[in-house]
Structures
1.
Amino acid sequence: MADTTHTKVLIIGSGPAGYTAGVYASRAMLEPILVQGIEPGGQLTTTTEVENYPGFTEVQGPELMVKMEEHARAMGCQIVSDIITDLDLSKRPFTAKGDSGNTITADAVILATGARAKWLGLPSEEAFKGFGVSACATCDGFFYRGQEIVVIGGGNTAVEEALFLTNFASKVTLIHRRDELRAEKILIDRLMKNPKIEPLWHHVLEEVVGDDNPKGVTGVKVKHVETGAISEIPCAGVFVAIGHAPASELVKDTLKLHNGGYVAVKPGGTETSVPGVFAAGDLTDHKYRQAVTSAGMGCMAALDAERWLAEQDD
Ligand code: FAD
Ligand code: NAP
């Protein structure tokens, strides 16, 4: 049966920002409830080695997120498996409805819904999603043992995905629209030294080509951005790694957004345009978008929420 629970602080999202907010809000005795969403642990559960989270020279992304969850639970954070489908921020207490049918009312809300993979928007990309087109090498790389693969993009994600896919694929072509990668130098160095990876500069994906029966990808048509020349590359898998968009749908009509959909917060803080609502992590950060910065903002949001709640009691 659907029920309604009240909490002082509702945290929406279970990435580094959400779990860190959970640790801090619990230690502030605010007895927070954290709703995990469709991807418990967030984006880092879709990757392998993480080498830049302080305290861990190398840790698997999913393992790091399990540790963060355990840490939040150990501090007393109540963790709920649900997806918030509706959030009413027009009056206090705020009301969040879950996909489960349950409702949570809250004196303060910390939004930590992060970001989701972007797609190119091609009809052929859509048609072959799940049948050779993917945005998650960790999830799907295993299916392409001994086969040729293309990766689209030139950032950290694309380079990491290309490197990871060499564990399975016979060849990985990295297709990038420029001739310069925006990934970290250490990753570029590894990419360039990997004999299985061939970069294809100044090209964009024009079309994913495949069969219907059985459904699967057989190649891609790519276009040279300067000459317009089209060429075809045979491959069994296409990994789209062109960045992430903030998951701000829940609040797109109620909070001030900026920079193409990121939740705007007060400079140097986590206060949004609605008092009592705070935002942290990739949802608000178009610039750094790292696990450690998200965790830092989760801490800030919990501290901001604690102070704001104390002011309401005065
Ligand atoms: P996210 O991790 O995006 O988590 C968002 C959470 O919100 C999820 O748990 C989701 O289920 C939840 N959610 C969303 N909508 C709802 C809803 N409606 N209701 C309830 N919950 C909801 N950073 C590094 O520092 N080092 C790395 O090595 C690194 N590698 C990466 C590799 C890949 C492949 C990717 C994609 C990213 C990588 N990053 C890395 C970036 C890092 O993962 C992000 O910066 C970080 O995860 C952002 O944390 P977050 O808490 O803001 O949100
Ligand atoms: P990103 O840094 O935004 O890079 C996106 C890449 O895709 C860019 O190279 C961009 O090209 C390309 N691109 C975007 N739209 C395109 C389109 N329509 N067609 C073709 N190419 C397109 O995204 P990301 O790599 O996912 O990284 C996101 C954040 O997570 C970053 O802050 C990153 O540092 C972080 N992250 C960190 C790590 C790590 O620390 N090891 C790992 C993964 C991610 P242009 O370069 O031409 O713009």
Note: The chain has a mean pLDDT of 96.
2.
Amino acid sequence: MKCRVCRGPAVVDIRRHNAAFCGEHFLHHCREQVRRTIKHYTMFRPGERVLVAVSGGKDSLALWDLLVDLGYDADGVYLGLGIGEYSDRSALAARAYADERGYRLHEVDLAVEYGYDIPGAAAATRRAPCGACGLSKRHLFNAVAIERGYDVVATGHNLDDEAAVLLGNVVRWETSYLGRQHPVLPATPGFARKVKPLIRLGEREMAAYCVVRGIDYIVEECPMAEGNRHLGYKDVLNVLEDRSPGTKAAFVLGFLDRAQERFAADADVEREALGECFVCGSPTTGDVCAFCRLRERAVGT
Ligand code: Q46
Ligand code: ZN
Ligand code: ZN
């Protein structure tokens, strides 16, 4: 296997591009993919402050690394979810990455600052933990961005994640979710812009990026992911990708280019008529926002 660019020994092959790369040219490939994604979707404007949602896993650490490398003013935020040893180890990975490079990492601990954790919230709501977790993350990443003056929150969703979510939304025709499944959600009063710069890079590429760059990330998956239906969609998509490399990219990027806009109106309807949450002041459709309602049920469990 030889590098497509320099013909030296390759360390990574990417079937959907029908290409292999040496370490140096693989890093260049990753940067180029991110640079092009940022430009294509106009994710950042000059001088903006970026907050990277960091979990300690490969995607978010690679994203932070790539953004700094591309010259962006990017800090991180880590949310302590209280999911046993998994959370302890992921916090160590996030802190070590930031400390070694002198980057700024904000930390929010759910149990200490909000009085609940994800296993407790799941028990209190009798729902799958990922629902409470996703809601808490969305709310708190945004809150940190707004409070500390960041213009945009960047998350490490990769091509595999986006393809799985898209398949789930298509299978159930969740049209308002389809309308929101865009790599840029514009800022609205009380909400920072949200962007996903890794949507052209797959899971394997992100793992390889971390290895080549010497980034220590937490390899184990969250123990509460079981039952997360997106894992099933990922398996199905991997079978398709294996038979026909490029399927995931064609699915996601084709949707964004050709169809996403058609569903935007469904998402807009829900964004109308936002008032302020009685408890925390966040924009919400009701009197009390979903995060504060979750917290009220979960505190003390
Ligand atoms: S951390 Fe949270 Fe994930 Fe764990 S509980 Fe589910 S959503 S799986 S990315
Ligand atoms: Zn090369
Ligand atoms: Zn609230």
Note: The radius of gyration is 19 Å.
